[in-house]
Design goal:
The complex is a heterodimer of chains A (about 375) and B (about 100).
Chain A (H helix, E strand, L loop, with lengths): L2 E8 L2 E8 L6 E6 L4 E7 L7 E7 L3 E7 L7 E2 L12 E3 L5 E3 L4 E7 L7 E6 L2 E5 L7 E2 L1 H4 L15 E7 L7 E6 L2 E5 L7 E2 L20 E6 L7 E5 L3 E4 L7 E2 L12 E3 L7 E3 L17 E4 L7 E3 L17 E3 L7 E4 L5 E4 L7 E4 L5 E9 L1
Antiparallel strand pairs in A: 1-2, 1-30, 2-3, 4-5, 5-6, 6-7, 8-9, 10-11, 11-12, 12-13, 14-15, 15-16, 16-17, 18-19, 19-20, 20-21, 22-23, 23-24, 24-25, 26-27, 27-28, 28-29
Chain B lengths: L1 E4 L2 H7 L5 E3 L7 H11 L19 E5 L2 E2 L11 H4 L5 E5 L5
Parallel strand pairs in B: 1-5
Antiparallel strand pairs in B: 1-2, 3-4, 3-5
Chain lengths: ~375, ~100
């Protein structure tokens, strides 16, 4: 019997939501790590019982938690994230050089093949890897050491590496995204990196088509078609058909193309989902109506999905890591809001219902499909 | 024995209840207490002082004998009452945020 396990990170702890394949009756467990910010938790594709969680607080810093039993029990793993060598500087908000300083882990990406290998995207932006189940961490310094590194500048939320996509076909290829530096790719397992931002246009930077400096909010990929990438940028929804070599805009008829998350249907590589947000200064849905938009054509043509979502007086946000899909036959879509709701659709977005309504502000949502 | 009182979140993390008792070589200092604490409870590494700089985290405070010792040098001797175990060293999460 198939089942789904939804891993929810919030401002004040983690929650694990489970249901059978019907996705009607949910068991809600938590808060785990109560009182701590859980930026992200994710399971290993190679061993679904192996979970990793990023636990942090303004008082006590960063911890990494690991579970070997699907989240029933947890143990602290290693939390020493030391930049390689002398860290150097990036640009501060005022344009002055600012020393690289570790703040927190935004995103954990377990290897597709080895449950003991996991990547961590951190603030200030860098990529770390552990090959011993999170006990020790080593930076992949070629990313931060890219020639453009000293010119990277934080976005309003900090200079975070928030997206890590592992290519399921080419094990040496990894995509990452950094706010507000842009997207980068390695083709040699993380030794060297180069920006992949050609085609992006950002009016908020001096040269709108600069090689780096773009505030990429999220990138998504379908595992069966890893050369095609979908991006939600600060403004603009973008698509690349050549592994990020070039991008073209696919915002089409979206009512606003600002937003944070983007994701791809589990079985239809050209069906994608975004949650349009009014603007960069008004982080809530247009007109108080929470609407997911779906394109079945790989972008440009979008339809509003509203059935079961609040259509009045709704002023929540949906953060970049807070949307995920399951792999059941009828693809399930899940997202969490800053108002603490987790909404789920078991019919690819046609209809929605809340699994739970009153959690702390949701930072991340991941889904495991268990068979 | 040195008596240390940890804040709730760190007691939960270290899975201890009440005070923590530590063997610390004389003279007892903040650094030696934290070294002993982290040796006994490795999961606390990085939570009270930074891994790399060894600096106290900004929102962590050290109190003892009704005094704030947070700004004392890490190698300064702790008060005799703490060294003797008559008074605990309090590790406190500062009042900040929510």
């Amino acid at each position: 019997m198939s089942a789904v396990r939804v891993l929810v990170g919030t401002r004040k702890g983690a929650f694990v939501l489970t249901a059978d394949a019907k996705r009607e009756q949910w068991d809600i467990r938590g808060p785990l790590f109560a009182g701590w910010e859980i930026y992200h938790l994710k399971g290993s594709p190679a061993d679904p019982n192996r979970l990793y969680a990023s636990q942090s607080s303004g008082w006590f810093g960063q911890l990494i938690q690991r579970s070997n039993d699907g989240g029933e029990t947890w143990e602290p793993a290693g939390n020493a994230f030391a930049y390689d060598g002398v860290p150097g500087t990036h640009q501060w908000y005022d344009g002055t050089p600012h020393p690289w300083a570790f703040a927190r882990v935004w995103h954990l990406e377990p290897s597709l093949r080895d449950p003991d290998v996991v990547y961590a995207g951190v603030e200030d932006a860098a990529l770390f890897r552990s090959t011993d189940a999170g006990q020790t961490w080593a930076e992949l310094p070629g990313l931060r050491g890219h020639d453009s590194g000293p010119s990277w500048q934080p976005g309003a939320g900090g200079m975070c590496l928030h997206t890590i996509l592992l290519d399921p076909v080419n094990a040496d290829r990894i995509f990452v995204a950094i706010s507000a530096a842009g997207a980068f790719r390695t083709d040699d397992g993380g030794t060297t990196w180069r920006p992949i931002n050609r085609g992006l246009k950002s009016e908020g930077i001096p040269d709108p088509q600069a090689e780096v400096g773009h505030c990429v909010h999220r990138i998504a990929m379908h595992p069966a078609r890893p050369g095609v990438l979908f991006m939600q940028k600060h403004w603009d929804v973008m698509r690349s058909d050549d592994s990020g070599e070039s991008w073209r805009e696919i915002s089409g008829n979206l009512p606003t193309d600002f937003g944070f998350p983007i994701d791809v249907h589990a079985h239809e590589p050209d069906t994608i989902y975004v949650v349009p947000i009014k603007s960069d200064s008004e982080h809530f849905p247009l007109d108080g109506q929470l609407r997911v938009y779906r394109s079945r054509t790989g972008g440009s043509e979008w339809e509003a999905l509203t059935n079961g979502l609040p259509q009045r007086n709704c002023y929540v946000n949906v953060l970049r890591d807070a949307m995920a899909v399951d792999r059941l036959d009828s693809c399930g879509i899940y997202f969490g809001t800053t108002g603490g709701q987790i909404y789920a659709s078991s019919d690819a977005g046609d209809s929605w219902a809340p699994i739970v309504r009153d959690l702390p502000a949701v930072l991340s949502v991941e889904v495991q499909t268990l068979t | 024995m040195i008596r240390v009182v940890l804040p709730t979140h760190l007691r939960t993390l270290a899975r201890v209840a009440g005070e923590t008792l530590l063997e610390v070589p004389a003279p007892a200092t903040q650094r030696r207490v934290l070294d002993a604490l982290e040796a006994q409870y490795p999961m606390l590494r990085g939570t009270i002082r930074d891994h790399v700089t060894q600096q106290r985290r900004p929102f962590v405070r050290f109190f003892a004998c009704a005094r704030d010792l947070s700004h004392e040098a890490p190698d300064a001797a702790l008060p005799e009452e703490v060294s003797s175990g008559a008074e605990p060293l309090l590790v406190v999460g500062a009042m900040a945020g929510g």
